[in-house]
Amino acid sequence: MAPKVWALATLLAxxxxxxxxxxxxxxxxxSTTWQVQRAAMTTTEASISQSDEVAVHQDVGGGNAxxxxxxxxxxxxxxxxxSSSSEVAxxxxxxxxxxxxHAGLNLTSFLALYAPISSSIQNEECRKQGRLYxxxxxxxTLWASQMFDSTTKFPLGVLYGSTASMGNFDECTLVDVEVGxxxxxxxxxxxxxxxxxxxxxxxxxxxxxxFDQKIKGAPRSKLDLRNQEFLRHANTSxxxxxxxxxxxxxxNSRNEVHWGFCIPSACSASDWEAHLNYVLNHIAPxxxxxxxxxxxxxxxxxxxxxxxxxxxxxLGLVFxxxxxxxxxxxLYDVYPYLTGIPRDIKRPKLIHKLIHCFSASAxxxxxxxxxxxxxxxxxxxxxxxMSLCLIxxxxxxxxxxxxxxxxxxxxxSFYRKVxxxxxxxxxxxxxxxxxxxxxxVCYLMIQEYEKKKRINIFMLYVHxxxxxxxxxxxxxxxxxxxxxxxxSGPLWQQKVGLEAERCSESWWTNVLYINNYVxxxxxxxxxxxYITCDMHLFIISPPIxxxxxxxxxxxxxxxxxxxxxxxxxxFLVTYTKRLDALLLxxxxxxxxxxxNDTFRSMYIPTHTRASPYxxxxxxxxxxxxxxxxxxxxxxxxxxxxxxxxLVCIEGTVFSAWVFYSPGRPYDAxxxxxxxxxxxxxxxxxxxxxxxxxxxxxxxxxKPFLVWPPIITLSRMTYCAFLSHGALQLYTVASARSPxxxxxxxxxxxxxxxxxxxxxxxxxxxxxxxxxxxGLEKIILGGGSRNEEGAEAKRAAVPANGGxxxxxxxxxxxxxxxxxxxxxxxxxxxxxxAVVETCNHGEGM
Length: 844
Fold this sequence. Notes:
Layout: H1 2-13, H2 15-18, E1 53-59, E2 64-72, E3 78-80, E4 88-89, H3 96-103, H4 107-113, H5 124-138, H6 142-149, E5 164-165, H7 169-173, E6 176-180, H8 189-194, E7 197-213, H9 238-247, E8 256-264, H10 269-283, E9 289-294, E10 300-301, H11 310-339, H12 350-358, H13 360-368, H14 379-401, H15 408-414, H16 421-424, H17 430-452, H18 457-482, H19 492-511, H20 529-550, H21 552-577, H22 587-590, H23 597-603, H24 606-609, H25 611-628, H26 635-654, H27 657-660, H28 668-694, H29 702-705, H30 708-714, H31 717-733, H32 743-780, H33 785-795, H34 802-810, H35 830-838
Parallel strand pairs: 5-8
Antiparallel strand pairs: 1-2, 2-3, 2-4, 6-7, 7-8, 7-9, 7-10
Helix pairs in contact: 5-6, 11-12, 11-34, 12-32, 14-17, 14-30, 14-31, 14-32, 17-20, 17-25, 17-28, 17-35, 18-19, 18-20, 18-31, 18-32, 18-35, 19-31, 20-21, 21-25, 21-28, 25-28, 26-28, 31-32
């Protein structure tokens, strides 16, 4: 098989092996090893007229073939680009030298394959520019040579799974010249009569070519996917490996290659697809294969100047407006410390409060302050931060595995390692956030019921929506309008362009928090499903919490019922639809996970992801009982709890290896059981960590989980969660070459993702999230006297305070914030406290 596949590539690219600046002269090229016929090469300097045709004649049965390109010279004299004096049998020997000696092909023949001049192209302007490209390439003109130089010549590592040969995107798209009399070039008579000048621009097209063996006789048998190692040392056909990769979902396809071509901009994707298929239809039968080319419109790109759309311009104005307001308010806030002139404000007025909401210095102060609370829930900050970092690493892995790779066989072998489940089962970390959200909602709301006996549920929902949505809408608008304008690359339109299209069509489902049910195949921001699920679960939580407080027995029964119902629903969905037990991170799946059935039917719907949230609520209720009754957990129970938690967490992670086992027959019952139970076991383990550490039974973890820098970063996790996807999407979409996969590169890229994500989060927090939260408190009455008192103290700083005094004594006071305010004596309004605590329960 191998000689035939490589011969197909060589027929398209062998000119790269011979091409030299003098190859297109009138002298015959002679060599002791290669005899390349050059019929009618004296005419190659002449322009190629519009009547060019590529005629390929073949007698498959007799094994004879000849390739001809006929045309008329400008003066009317005919010429032959492909030598065709006799039909020569294609040798069966794998010796390429003999192949081309017998074929009698010349260099111009091969060059014509890269120029869109075939008669199958209906676009005459495309064929005209194709002929011009071919003519100038034969003359070794710079722009034409650059177009050819940027085109893929020969694929490398196809049998290793590296099927993307991307050429040079930038070299191609930077070609932009005027060709004709006005440019000083020699043109044909027809062009001279028209007096036209051709504007030639390079267009990069990443084309997909699928090939397969022509089957003769009995159909091929199914391979045993469990015995693959023999291929490393077996003396067998290459088709065996190609067939194996086609049957195994964990392997990258070897019969689908992606080649980057540089063609004239006048040609459309359909024109180039017609040309490639015309060529393949005549060459592939010679090699006893079947080949089909596909070129999508979004895979053909030319260099375009930066132009803002109306939506992008409006978003830019929004960013500019908020930046100016924040800058002005910050200057107002720090003016006394910079000048030494105090503001004599005994009671801050409304205008002063509004200005304070937008002050960057005041909001930074809130991020940096920390005080330990009596319930010990500061440990949740560390869990949030650690889990988000793991999620960012998991998303980096998913983005890279869904992109072209140079070493897919390494990744394929990775799927078969038990230890690899630490990464491949990474999506389970999302359930940590569901458990945290359920824990906090139940614990804080039931405490408030104890204190005030009632809660305004409607206002609770309003607070939740106001807290989450504004900054969420800003990121959605960026995805829809500006992101696609900020980069380029072979995969840019396929990934970023597709994301922008989806966002422009379905952004409203995100704003209404229904995007995991309404048109999920067009979901904007693939990680946004979590925000929607968390919102749905938050909405149904108050009735359950109320019953737990008012009628504990009925509340426990209801909580148990909904937990079991979620498990049963997950079981039935997986079983009836024959879905995978979990989202398997295969390369084929991750190229577009939204199109995967398991992702849409099991991974993102609220009804299949609810069980961890309810487990978290049960843990929150247990924490409330322990706190209110001053219970002390026995040492035996502590040790038993830690052992169970360790078994649940590690067992959940590593048991996924069963479903990655190669050749394992699908079992719907096993998949359904695992799909229904593995989220429960993980949530039990993480919920125990919260209870144990918060009650003083996890002191070996507490120093890390409550480290002040971790607490500060955890307050920005919501914006980091929103922004990290765009950064990772930009990285893979702008890549010019395939990615080399390794553990080191994954850690290296993930570290950069984490730093950049929190940098973007810091900006979003200061410009949008913190100011809007402050406004919401003022408008809906959530402000506190403590805040007013702190602001009055800031306003009354003496004139000799100076900037250094501000830094040491004012910007870093130890005041309670966010989670620390969960104790009832620190809360004035439960809706503020609950939402403040829970609105950062980010996930994948």
